Amino acid sequence: MEKKFSEKPSEKKLEEQDRILEEITQNDYEWGFETKIAIDALEKGLNEHVIRQISKLKGEPEYMLRFRLDAYNRWKAMKEPHWAHFDYAPIDYQDIIYYAAPKSEREKALDNIDPELLETFKKLGIELDESKELPKVAVDAIMDSVSVKTMYSEELSKQGIIFCSISEAIKNHPDLIKKYLGSVVPSGDNFFSALNSAVFSDGSFVYIPKGVRCPMELSSYFRINAKESGQFERTLIIADEGAYVSYMEGCTAPMRDKNQLHAAVVEIVVLKDAEVKYSTVQNWYPGDKDGKGGIYNFVTKRGICKGSRAKLSWTQVETGSAITWKYPSIILKGDNTTGEFYSVAVTNNRQQADTGTKVIHIGKDTKSTIVSKGVSAGASQNSYRGLVKVMPNASGAHNFSRCDSLLMGNRCGAHTWPDIQCQNDNAIIEHEATTSKISEEKLFYCQQRGLSAESAVSLIVNGYAKDVLNQLPMEFAAEAQKLLSISLEGSVG
Amino acid sequence: MLLEIKDLHASINGKQILKGVDLKVDKGEIHAIMGPNGNGKSTLASVIAGKEMFHVDSGEILYKGKNLFDLNVEERACEGIFLGFQYPVEIPGVSIASFMRAALNEQRKYKGLDPIDTFEFMKYMEEKQALVGMTDRLANRSVNEGFSGGEKKKNEIFQMAMLQPTLAILDETDSGLDIDALRIVAGGVNKLASKDNAIVVITHYQRLLDYIVPDFVHVLADGKIVKTGDKELAKELEAKGYDWLKDKGEL
After folding, report:
1. What pairs with residue B8 in β-bridges?
2. Domain-by-domain residue ranges, chain B?
3. Which of A13, A446, A466 shows the shortest C-beta gap to B72?
4. What is the pLDDT of residues A181-193, one digit of tens each?
5. Are the C-beta atoms of A421 and A452 separated by less than 8 Å?
6. Do A446 and B91 touch (CB under 8 A)?
7. What part of A 256-275 touches B (C-beta under 8 Å)?
8. What angle do CA A62, A64, A68 make, to 5 degrees?
9. CATH code of the region B3-30+40-168+179-199
10. Best of B18, B62, B91, B145 to disrupt the A interface by mutation (most A CBs within 10 Å)?
11. Of the candidates A230, B55, B74, B114, which lies 20 to 30 Å from A112 by C-alpha distance?
12. Any idea where the domains of chain A sit in the sequence?
């Protein structure tokens, strides 16, 4: 038999991995399409006139305009924070459109919604037709600055549940808005919350009355479509005594060369014996593989467990955005309250994420759990930043934190900044952290059983993130698993 | 001939490890490869499985009559080559059951078959678990995470049972096993051996060969197979040590 050594396994393998890498990094971001639809937009830039226009366009009562102007004045006096582990070109706040809305009016009846809009959400996997939806998930669909459609509002209202756009709530439920808007995240809390408070355009509002268990998952789907516009949504969730709700949030945006700003505020109020589960799958456009374009995601999310035995749980799967700046926080004010934070943050190519949580133990016997799983690939930077603070009166407080990083390749970075401040001798605080790599050995083991490199990475990462994925509602879990694999495609090689 | 290795030379980081290995393995045979530490036994196993860090300098391997180097790692696995690892890795968060299901389905896909149905898979898995005495509790734990040495090796043999390879290479499957575990693992291997497959066990000690009786015993020393015999050779080695070969001028 003649000898033939033209192809040596190691070289062949490398070539193949290069090919896979190339193929997949050239894959389009699946959600990157643009909807051609007429929009009403304000001129670029931010000033008092723009804020008055937004308020006027939305037909807001006077109290809201005052809220906005007050926030704007605070914002003007503030400076953009730069303590996060980021490197990005300065944002020109005068080069952003602060209000853009699809021309067609928001309609209750499906027939009156622009078919182009329905088609857009359908393409994103969101079915807005109530007669078709199975299993039942009530969706508030938000395109750019306005809510397009909120489903099942009527059915939910029979139980006293309010699920509508925040614009509607401002008009129809001023008492709740005046009482709670800005009560958890004050306008002047930080630069981005002040900006949001001044210009927020739409978002979701949820109120679950006393003792009511919301019978279906509530969900908001945020879509940025317009060019050069920012999205500034505002969400407010109130669970009255003994109430329960599970809320999910998803988001995507078209692929554009220019960075777009997203600065949202989410406030959650959990009263005595109530429970709120808030799940996010964040998949904003991350930019291309050289770091061009992508969403700048500066988000303030905070909830308060006000009454005793209240429970709040944040679960997030963060795969998108060029920049993610986000620390969903929990204030455990009532006695025996519970807070949970479960997070998977995946960064690939040139993405930068600085995310984590803050938990403030104020009440007695308060309990918190933090599970953070970072995955960095490509030339990305992934940071965990967390604060656990136990106040002097919080005797019996208990925190458990687990903070893991997984690295792929040798060009990415993983960083953790955990901060623990304990002012009570009775508190128990545990912190565990690991850093690991998807090693050649691990990949080889999987491949030797017949799995491709891609499948092996997907399997390993999903296993690593399992503790977090298990927290997601069923409707989201499968989607999130798929997303993790897609986000990391092309990262082996 | 199932596997035919001809004058194989391989190196790692420029250091030559295999210096002309010749070996023939056919279906229905059990081979044992013995030899002192650091003489290339595990390297040979890794080169057959396709591990990237080893560089094939010259020579060839024919598998089912075809050039093995044309296939990547996973293709070799799908073609029926199985490596029982000396140091199996941990995969946190992935149960043995889901790991095996993923592997089995990828191998089925390679063969043009549909993914295995859930019920069928559970039944199949139960059957193979019984073969190596693997409990449900173990099967539902994450792959090798926190496993004892014996559990890890049992898991390797279980995976072999699940994937039904044509050529199984067991790299020091006996290392770190107490006598009971050794019996169970060897018993599993014996049950899996058939006229349709071949098994190559790599070991230091004759001990394993009391349970898995080889048709051929090879001594690999200094990157070459220096002596081949039957099971009596292993006993002789055990009694006289490798120095015996050295004294005879064969090493």
Report:
1. B21
2. 3-30+40-168+179-199
3. A13
4. 999 999 999 999 9
5. no
6. yes
7. none
8. 120
9. 3.40.50.300
10. B91
11. A230
12. 30-326
